[in-house]
Amino acid sequence: MLDMAPSKQAATWLSSLSCAVEAGDVEAATNLFVEDCYWRDLLTVTWNIKTMEGRAAIHDMLEATLATTKPTAWQLSGEASADEGIVEAWFTFETSSAWGQGIVRLQDGRCRTLFTAMSDLKGFEERSGPARPLGVRHKADPDRETWAEARARETRDLGAIEQPYCLVIGGGQGGIMLGARLRQLGVPAIIIEKNAQAGDSWRNRYRSLVLHDPVWYDHLPYIPFPENWPVFTPKDKMGDWLEMYTRVMELNYWTSTKCLSASYDEAEKVWTVEVDRAGERITLKPKHIVFATGAYGPPRQIDLPGAEAFQGEILHSSQYSSGEKFRGRRVAVIGAASSGHDVAVDLWESGAEVTMVQRSPTTVVKSDTLMEVGFEIFSEDALARGITTEKADMIVASTPFALLPQSQRALYEVIKARDAAFYDRLRGAGFAIDFGHDETGLLMKAYRTGSGYYIDVGASDLIIDGEIGVRSGVEIKSLTPTGILFDDGTELVADVIISCTGYQSMNETVAAIVSREVADKVGPCWGIGSGTRGDPGPWQGELRNMWKPTAQEALWFHGGNLALSRFYSKYVALQIKARMEGVATPVYGAPG
Predict the structure, then answer these.
(1) Which Gene3D superfamilies match (predicted)?
(2) Which segments in the chain show pLDDT lower than 70?
(3) What pTM value is reported for the model?
C-alpha cells in the first residue's frame, strides 16, 4: 500500500473504513488507526463536539454510535497529497440523518488523525444556490403578501403572537452570526441586545480599537467582506458592517433589550424568559436559549486594598471609551495583555502620562511576523492557491487540540529567532516576556485562558522608547490616596487607575440570569483542561462547554473571536435545528 499514489492510498483506506463500519465490525475499523491516533468529530457520529484520543476511545465511540448513525458512502473529494510521509485527503460521507465531510491523514497506511464534520441535515438543508427562495409568486393575486409585508408581519408577531424556538442572548458578532445561521435553517429566533444599535458593542469601545486579526480570518457567514476591505478592520467600520448584516440577513434583532431572568421547566421542556425591551417587560417562551455574550462573562474586578482611600478615578477597561478626558493626567493601566496595551496606546495618543503595571509575563508577537508565519492559510496568497476561508476553517478544525502544542512550539521557535532583537529591546525596557509555560505561544494561551498575550500593533515601540512606562516584577500592596504602593516600598503616583484585568467565565452570566445552581451545574466555559494556571484539569480535548450540549438541557454557549464564531455558529445552529425537527440526537460523551 505504501507504494501507491497518495489518492490511491487514501481511497483504499476509506474503502476499508467504509466496509468495516457498514458491517458493524468495530475491531476492524479500529485496526485501521495507528496507536497514537485521534478522531475529532463535529456532530456526525457523536452529536457532540468531541475528540476521541487513541484506539480504545475510538473503539468505544464506534461501539456506542454505529447502530444509530450508520455512516456510509465514504468518497474522496479531490486529489490526496503527501508531505513528509503523511498522506492527506479530503472526503465526503453520509450518516442516517446528515451529510458530512472530513479530512484524513495517514501515516504508514494507517490513520493518524481523522476529522469529520456535519455539512447539512438530510431533508433540512439550507435554501441556497439552486434551492434558493424564488422571492415572488408569478401570478396575479388580490390577496398577495409582498416580501416586505411578510417580513413586517414576522417582525410584529414573533415574540408576541408566536414564540421563538430559540432565544439568543447577546447581539454582538457571535449572536449575529448564529442568528444568520438559524434563519437560513428556518429556525424562528430572536436575538436580544442591550445596546441601542447592532454593532454598538464595537462602536462603544475605545476610539483607536482595530481588529488585530486580518480580514481573511474575520469574514462573516454568507456575506464576506468586499475586496477593498482593509486588512485590519477599525471598530466603527466593524460596527457598521454588523448593523448592515442584521438588516440584509433579516434577523429578528431586538435592540435596547436586557434579559432579566430565565428559568427552565424540565417537564414542559420550555424556558420562561423575562426581558426588558426599551422599558416594556415581555415574557418569552423559547425551547432553547443560547448565551452569546462574547467568549467571556462579566468584567473581572481585582481586589485593590485601600481603594476607598484613593482620591482619583478607578475604572475597568469595559468602561473605557476614550483617553481624551485623561489628557495631561497620570494614568496607571493594570494589566499587560491586549486590552492593557490598546488602552495604554489610546491614552498616550490622547496626551496622558501612562504607566503599565504588569502583574505577570506577556506573550508578545509582532503583527507583521504573525501575518507572515501564523496566518499563512488566511491570506491573499492562500486564496491564490485555492484555499478559501471556508477551506482554511476546515484545515484548522481538523487538528486535534492535543497536537497543537507541538506545532505551536515549533512556530514560536521560528518567531523568537526571527525577532530576537525586538524581544531583547522589550526586555531591556523592563517588560517581562514569556511564551507560555511550555513555550507554545499565543494560540495556546488563547485556547487555555483567553489571556496573557498581545499582537503588537505599535505599543511595544512606545514601551521600548520609554513613552509608556512599565512596572513589572513587583506586587501591588495597596492603593494610597495618590497612587499605587508596591511590595518593594515604591509608589506609582496616579490620578487614574484603569484595570485591564479581563472577564469572568460566561457561566457567571448564567448565574446572574438563570441561577447559581445552574451555573455551577454547567461549569466554566473556555479552556481545554491543560492544567496550566487559569485552565485547570481534567483534560477536555475540546473547549469547555462551547458550541455543544451542556449539563443544562436546552442551554448553549456560543462565542469566540470572529473566526471561531463564524465556523462554530454553523454547528450550534445544526444542533438546534435537529431538535426542532425531531431528528434523533443521541449525544455521545459527557457534557462540558
Answers:
(1) 3.10.450.50, FAD/NAD(P)-binding domain
(2) 1-3, 295-297
(3) 0.94
